[in-house]
Amino acid sequence: MSKSKNEVATDVITSDRRNFIRGAGAVLGAGALASFTPAANAVSAPSASRSAFVTSSDSVLAKILSTKKIKFGVDLTFAPLQYKKADGTPTGYIVDLASKLAASLGATPEWVELPFGSLFAAQAAGKFDMSGISATIKPERAQTVLFASYPSFVESNYVLIKPGSKLKKLTDLNSSAISIAVVVGSSQEAAAKILYPKAKLKKLSNTAALADVAAGRSDAMIVGEFEIAGALKNNKGLKFLNVPPVFVDENSFFMPAGDYDLKNYVDTWLRYETSHNNLAGLWDKYVGNDARKLGLQSVSVTSAWSK
User: Fold this and answer.
1) Nearest 5 degrees, angle CA 102-CA 106-CA 108?
2) Is 160 in the same domain as 243?
3) So what's the pLDDT on residue 189?
């Protein structure tokens, strides 16, 4: 029985396909087939018997999990974020957070105290495992250290002014007759250079800068809202410019550059603590409630899914 025209056409197409596949196989050879063969050193899926923490052997995270100890780099002169009780015990908003982070790893915290401006170089030199405080996520700092991806707090920056000051608005600060105390190495120092180029900047430690403006030796100091309630309480006559924030910073923990195992853990921990309102609760306890009583903007870090 002879084939119809449609059947003949189908046979031709099928034959062409077979010839194409044979030709392709001859050209590509065994190399092509090898590309579809699992490599001998491919990473297999984790088994149930493996550790809950799968880390690179050179990660700080692996060391923390092994030794059950974690060294935090801190400057404990920024009450109420991080400071010492009368008996010398570290406390404050960020110290509480860092302690909770250590506990989540089953580790005992050790506090390595250094001036704020020295912390980034010290981290790069391996003087401690990660920061036990949070710092503004400045791009130039990210050339030296690795920041967590999520903020531990949001800092609204205001201007403290000396007792008896006649300053009324932010533009009054941009004058050669004005001296502004700034914490050396801080985001406030960087911002003041740009915003008030005519002013004289006095680069000091945080404690010294507060004392300088309180004594009238400096005209002003740019500070986060967290410091203002305490500064007004402890320094008679000290005031602040009652205007919107000069700028707002995001701050977070930092760790050794390139240590993404540790970063991934800290990111996950921060997301969990944020979504459970633990950051917001601690912030309001140490900072938010007092700052808002003064009419200051103070933002609690909460989940984007919260209403």
Assistant:
1) 55
2) yes
3) 97
